[in-house]
## 1
Amino acid sequence: MLSKCVVDCPELCLAYLTSFPSPSVWQDQAEQLFKSGHTNNWAVLVCTSRFWFNYRHVANTLSVYRSVKRLGIPDSHIVLMLADDMACNPRNPKPATVFSHKNMELNVYGDDVEVDYRSYEVTVENFLRVLTGRVPPSAPRSKRLLSDDRSNVLIYMTGHGGNGFLKFQDSEEITNVELADAFEQMWQKRRYHEMLFIIDTCQGASMYERFYSPNVMALASSQVGEDSLSHQPDLAIGVHLMDRYTFYVLEFLEEIHPASQANMNDLFQVCPKSLCVSTPGHRTDLFQRNPQNVLITDFFGSVRKVELTTETVSLKPDLSSMGYSHLKCHEDEELAEPLSYAAQLPVAQIIHQKPKPKEWHPPGGFILGLWALILMVFFKTYGIKHMKYVF
Amino acid sequence: MAEGRMLGERARVERPRLERGDRERNQALPALILDPEKIRGKHAALCFATMAVMLGLPLWWKTTETYRAALPYSQISELDSLLLRLRVPVSVVFVQGSLPIVDQQKLPFTIVNERDIPLKCKMRLKSRFQQAYRMAGSSEENALKKDTVQEAEAALPLPKEDSLGSLNIFVIPEKSSLLPQDKMSYIGPKRTAFVRGAHGRQALTVIGQKILQVAQAMSLTEEVLASALGDRLPEDKLNLDKRRPLKSSLGYEITFSLLNPDPKSHEVHWDIEGAVENYVQPFMSLLSAIGNFSMDSQVLYYAMLGVTPRFDAATSSYTLAAHSLPHVINPVEARLGSRAASLYPVINFLLYVPERAHSPLYIQDKDGARVTTNAFHSPRWGGIMVYNVDPSAYNTTRYPVKVNVDMVPVMEVFLSQMRLLFGVPHPQMPENFLLGSPPSEGLRYWELDRLVWARAVENLATVITTLTSLAELLDKIGNIVIKDDVASEVYRAMDAFQEAALELSAGNLEVAFRASREAVTSSEKAFFDPSLLHLLYFPDDQKFAIYIPLFLPMAVPIFLSMIKIIVENQKARKDMEKVD
């Protein structure tokens, strides 16, 4: 991955440098125009389906994950929610792979996919908890969205949807009102600077109808009443591999590199009706900047603002202690003894442990209720006079 | 009964004229009205309906209400337009000969100077400089008789109250030689400053103004507070300064990383432990006033920069142009870890030893000039420095070449980057001020005070936005439950806030800062409590779908019987009128 960057970049760097005559002047103007005000990027990628026949949704999400990683957002800033039951599914003829092109050209699963929420953890509740930040205290760093008021957040959702709702894992739904409220809670706590919401489901435009928080731009693959269609089946695998909208978005993203100046208007033109069959829609009224001035890399990549350090603090060198601690290091290394593995486990203690006596609890409500019912029925049938034989 | 018999007689009398149906009806009607079973039935139906309405409806309403523990909504809405007074205690000491005798006799007294800080936000801030004037004691007089300012400062006895946020200003005679001729005042590295006195009628006023100028330069200025409240002010796209400082947090994690992309050529040793102990620890011990710091270090091998440097034939060195620097950080960041357990923001300091093929490597700025420090930093992320290996070390045949990193210039750069990341820029003073050099820790005490002022104000502003947005959310979204412990956290946040505001107006910066941190912790805990998640949004059609199977079977018989009773009563009344 890293070597790929080094190989790709020199040509791009040179091309970038030679195409503009006075880089410094242009750079200033460009900075003024495209200044977006964010310092870091986050991405939340959600695939809301499970089961083998929804292969294309997992392939969609993983392809977007790959693009986002390629353009620079690190894994620590990506929250990936997948059902993750494709690669090791018994019906997968090529185990440990998820392909996104027919003829198995591109394996998007690979070695370095970090799924943060997998399988049954992909629920509406967890998704809303990630967005609003109300995760339980035991959640590790990788499962949290630690964005702040200078973060640009990309949210990509795919799955099966309807008019005003999105189906999560075949058992629950998230409505557009809940999503809009979650975004409002994010805005109130300033958990994002700007947000781009992309949804690739049937009737996707209904999901962004209810947004009312500022600085949100939304894209959907189809309008209300239309279905989003899948791209192409692969006869060897036996399922459809990608959805049309995401396929063309990915073709567009393949041409974007970290220094690219493509803007959002280009993204809106991706996948016209002739290719997509459905009509993609977008919503920019809540966004403050003109989409013309918004770079694709503002959301999909992670280009950091950098300043040169021109001044230093002057320190008095402390020569005496420097050498000493260096020596100390070496001595410490020699003195450490290797521990044997077995010595760390108190096996004897574990084997000879006596079982703990379990405490006695009085019978619970169900048993009491059952006995009360039986007694009542008995005395009702046979009359109350039998009670005196009990006491 | 009497009526019944009367009706019956009449019916008999007028028999030929009445129809059968009428007679039956007339006989049935009294039965209907007077049958005891039917009356009991009517009473039973009425009782059911009354119970359902009187008891059932309120009970259902109360039990399906979302539980909301009481919150101080009125106090929260008042927070928005709060007035914060920031008091800076200044002690002004006059040396013999710095004031005309007339004014000297007026000492000691206290002047308070209060002014508005104009910021375009709803929170109003007033800064209050409380200047306590007094004459110098004998030990102070002796100290100030030294030759240079630095010696005088060193000889001064420790002031009685050297607490966070306070200032000590000494007024020396106008013609004194302690300061150079053209300088009006001297600002020391700790909380002391020297100002030239004045003579003449308006001496006290003139001196007062000079003192105010110095005090403002050392503590509260508009820029300090503007940078603290950066995100609450309307966005100013051209102002980069507001984006730079790290946000106020309870603690920070600092990671020092050594990147060695070419271990075959370089065997790099860096004494990071010693350097941290000698140079970073003193700095951190000062900064620990604003948070808990934890430091760790790592060495990464085969970690490349994402950009290939260009070869510059003129100096036979490799250069990284300024516009390619933003792309350097990303490939490396994937390799840098962070502690999984802590949620503190991470500040990374990277030291990059370039590969043999790309040595020496220099960073160029926009105009093509070399950056002397060979380092750059990214706001809210950290800094990177490029360390070039001495070319003479390559004159050996034994590879890898052993490289001992000289930590002093490295730490100088890292500490200055740390200052910039925390928002402590190099101070800009007016022309006639002489600025003392910073102490060995690298941070002047009054710069730290400024940071603490800014952080305290930022914390309080955060508490205000958190609590007001919580109240707004509860208003907008009806399904959020507020449990008792969440409510108690909100109350605790409010109490800590009041305490902080009180302490700020009394001038106790340290206590106020601690209280503001407590307020922020409590308010964040209340806002981000996992129980606040409203998962139960029911659109109206779903509500009907749930309630209809429960209520309809019960409601239908009641309604029908009510209708039947009413219809019968109306019929009875009509018939009685007819008969009458």
## 2
Amino acid sequence: MRCIVFCIPSGASQNSSDSGWEAKVTEFFRQRLMEKDAHTWVPSLNDVPLHYLKPNSLVKFRCLIQDMFDPEFYMGAYDTVDPSTKVLRCGKYKDVTECGVDLDSANMVTSERQTFYCVPIPGESPWKCMVFYAGARVVPSTSYVPSRQKRSYEDDDEDDMDTQPQAQGHAQGNGDSKRQETEAPSGQKASSPPLDLNFPLPGEKGPACLVKVYADWDSFKLNDTMEVYGILSVSPALSALSDQSDTSSSLILDPAECMETAEELRVHSPPASLVPRLHLIHTQRLAHNNPLLPPAALEDSAASLASTLGEMVSVRAELLAYFTQLLLGDVLAAEYLLLHLISNVYARRDVIPLGKFTLNLSGCPATAGPAYTEQLYCALQQLVPSAYRLSMTLQNMNQLRLVPRKDYVANRLLSGALQLAANTSLYLDETQLEQGQLDPAGVRNITALGNVISWQKVDYDFNYHQMEFPSNINVLIASEGRSLLPSDCHVHLQPQVTPPNMEAYLGSALTAQSSSQLNKFRLYLTMARTLDYSISEEVTKAVEDDFVDMRKDDPQSISADDLHSLLGVARLLCLSLGQSALSTDAWSRAKHIETLRKSRSEPQGCLNGNEP
Amino acid sequence: AVMDPALSTDTGPDGGVHVKDALSEKCQKLFLEFLEEFQSPTGELVYLADAEELIRPERNTLTVSFVNIEQYNQPLATTIQEEYYRVYPFLCQAVRHFARDHGNIPASKEFYVAFSEFPTRQKIRELTAARIGSLLRISGQVVRTHPVHPELVSGTFLCLDCQSLVKDVEQQFRYTQPNICKNPVCANRKRFMLDANKSRFVDFQKVRIQETQAELPRGSIPRSVEVVLRAEAVETAQAGDHSDFTGTLIVVPDVSALASAAVRSETSSRLTGREGFDADGVAGLKALGVRDLSYRLAFLASHVAPTNPRFGGKALRQEDQTAESVKNQMTVEEWEKVFEMTQDKNLYHNLCTSLFPTIHGNDEIKRGILLMLFGGVAKTTMEGTSLRGDVNICIVGDPSTSKSQFLKHVVDFAPRAIYTSGKASSAAGLTAAVVRDEESHEFVIEAGALMLADNGVCCIDEFDKMDLKDQVAIHEAMEQQTISITKAGIKATLNARTSILAAANPIDGHYNRSKSLKQNINMSAPIMSRFDLFFILVDECNEVTDYAIARRIVDLHCRNMESVQRVYSPDEVQRYILFARQFQPMITPAAREFVVEQYKLLRQRDSTGSMKSAWRITVRQLESMLRLSEAMTRMYCSDEVQPKHVKEAFRLLNKSIIRVDSPDINFDNEEDEQEIHGTRGSVGRNGIGTSAPKAVLKMSFAEYRKISNLIVLHMHRMEEVDEEGSLKKSELVNWYLKEMESEIETEEELISKKTLFEKVLHRLINYDHVIIELTQTGLKQSKNGEAPTTEEDPVLVVNPNYTLE
């Protein structure tokens, strides 16, 4: 797998653009990438700074589709203008032509492609990046070769593939050096007025990327997470072109000169140095986002996971002990926390999302200030692939944009903090809330949070209407009293220990875990979440009988909703033990812990009028 | 290269313009013939009057129905459709000739043609490069409008070197100077100045439209397309409108298309004998070696019309629709399905289950909501008062009953349905608000949820959590179906013809059966009376339903997709509802009589007061009954309201009003209840209730029932033993206390038990009439309104009409 530099075989496409070479190309890359370890050879935009990557080479990018632009038309094939060297060229996988175009040529083919605006997966935990980084074979020190050597590399390829005029090489050389000049690694955004890269979460870093898709774009959905393999295009000519059209469009009599306004242009054609283009060749959908597991669907690698499955019970016990320590000795709360972390919306029935398990952990020690909730978050962040802590201060509630909104001026979707990938842990810190006034935006934000919790959906604001996008976010609410937000499960913390120095206590608990231990936990959580689950006919019967009996004894004790949540708890309990079918034991255990939990919250009651 | 494969271009070596487009010329000729000859069935020339109108200076566009062209000359219609962009200038030319023949028109005036009623419609997502140049109709929601600009159609330039004028330089989408000064001795190619006074302009506006929600695949971002409007089409679309645009796709910036367009314009000017000039101003893009490979599509529209809702458009109702027109818009299969549904014997039930496949039970609510979707007929009385046809429903219920689910389902299903929560929306958010626009500082009216749901359903969750004053604000919307605003100098009445589906939590969190509906919800009486149907969801306990519920929930949790069963798909139901809504049923005399009869019955029952009804039966309920009957009739696609329809409406109404059965017994609040019912004479109060701790004086209905059965059983037994013997009240009390001996430990408990029992007895005697008190003063008490005497020890007998359950 040495050939990581991709060159467009436009020579092959001579005379016929539909010779099927496109299919062969994608198939070739798919095959090669399937090979063992092959994908680790491809440098990743996530880990390697852009200026270390070779333009027009194959790179990968682990990302979330943040926005979808309107389809774009390009010259799929065109003739060069110079009659003496008239050749048919291919425009696929490219952004700019490198030579004059014969616009009247009958050979010109107009093709369509779709652009997605992609950002790194929001809230990726730092540990993950480290794992990815360690696993990648291509690190800057080895991949980055002096540009001269690189040129010769390219020349070689050009010989058999493409006969670009020498000028192109020069242009590229200029581009390279220019990029290095303008982007001293520290100041990516220093040169231009800050372009909002539209990351869903505040304070995020990383490249955003325009991914150009050539086939099957309807299968992509907003907020999909995937790893894309494609050709990196950072030609500075792109920015130059957009600058030009900017100036020329100032003529007043030319309203149609440029269909896009300056604002749109800025968004849709940002400088390539800031937002590189990636011409997609192969996509790998991410079923989960844990680098410790093979990225493909789990069935494929069942054999290798069989051993892990066997260990699940013991890992569970260790993890439970760890959580108990974090939760100041509260075993029940620890158990619920564990269940919460493996929850996942596995299906939707009409409007009801199934499998969600929002946990409200109340009774968080407030005397210690934000330290406790903060450190608890740090501990959780260490275990899950992506997480975000939303401090529910009044200011945040009133000012943050949680719900994505369509900006019709720039014609893009302004992201919001709730535009998160599936299985992201959203940690709401309600201990930070104080008394005060919520303005309309704040009320909307609270409503949006409530919608995510109750229906696992976010209503994106399209100004004239709202549009519902399903979400799959694990919401954990840490609060002092019962949270003002709804939740599936409310556990009041009952600390068994009161360490004099909370920070030191938690700090030591955190550091006590070796990295291999943490990896075990991480693996466990992802595994448990993706297991299959079913309920046999007998158990179904038993559950139904049980429900009716309980209703008979005391109709108030259990409602339909209680059964609903009980089944949810039972499912998670089974999964956490590595079992893929409900057993009567697990059912009674679920009932038991639910009873314990409810007995805790009873004295508090549901006084504030929020539906449970 | 995209545009003109069929064009017979006679291109000179200079890239010149000697184009002869025979096809287009023929088209022009035929089109002119069409304009001059096409007659309506009554023999009038259809387009003559319109053409004469074009004399007016502000007019320049002739709107032609595409259907007419198809009738007149099908090949012509096909050519126009397929080669629209190519023949368009020629068609405009034909209009010009036509107008000139019938009026005195300035020579320089430009004319345009617009096509209406183009039969097929494309989705925005279906616009591909292959469709460039042909006539299309697309629909979408206007999301952004740009100001109207004058666009240069044809420029007159002053050469800055030799001062000579260069006239009639055709402009196409791009400011285009002459290539070279026409003065042979002047070689100026760059320095020109536009002479605005001698140039011709056309109104030009850019708008952006966006895919409608209905067309959007789930999980995708709606696509948008820029639309270029010209001439009379400008300013016909406002942001937020759903409109249809007829025109063609063009590519921007597509130099090749621009070049050939310029060539064609040139051709047309040549044909009309205008002062010809080599207006090959389109010099192409700067001869850059490097250029962007991509371009975008735009839509050049000549005609704009509000979207006529088809099934793709999903609009539930439309005034100017008839059943026939709706039928015509359906495909054959769709119509067959609808027809099949009308024949369904079990339609009522099947529609209900198809609407709410995952909600168990609650059939009455499902029926109510179904009827709400069909709606009654809006009427205007002779005095001009309009009576709404929309049905409003309120669901009151314990938490964790599936109230919100109902709402969510409706929002999911019904087009133009808005979901909002009373907690989160103030009156402004719900009705309409006047806000100052940030950019222009003008006041604009911002639509609230009710307005947005105009012609749809507005689902309001947590209705009770809404401020009272907000409830008042929507009062008008509910009855008048309008919203008035008088704020910041703006006075407006806006339509809000919407059905309201509200969900409310009872005041205490749980529905208190011992209280009336009114006491259970935080809602003002006027608002309450605006709801046609009230449903109360209580957590009932019964083995059969429990099993069903358990089965359903467990099914839900297994990966068992079959658990969602639908007889009809949502699309089918929607289509059916749209079709059925076109019926405007009238009431038959038989049904009228039946209505009167039923209404009387309701009134009577109300005044006897033996049943606990939720509110007084007034004329509002009569209106509701009619509305529901009409909805019922519509459901069966019938034009006449039959007694059977009224029967079901009556049943539903009855269920809704008198649903407050088996309430909890709360002895403290009986006084309040009296006020509500108003029908009962004042009943004595012995004052113990207020002094005793409140908690003791409540008991569940089940317990009350138990005690009452115990008493009745005991009394029956006593009567059997001794037929002549009479049971005194005190004896009964003592007997009871003795029975309860094992449970009583302290004296306090004894007293409280006694009090409670006396209360039960009191209730049995005075309220439920299970036991009859035989006292001397019994007949007088109602006359003077005094409290019945309780200090005496009356003889009690079981009401002979009472049967033990």
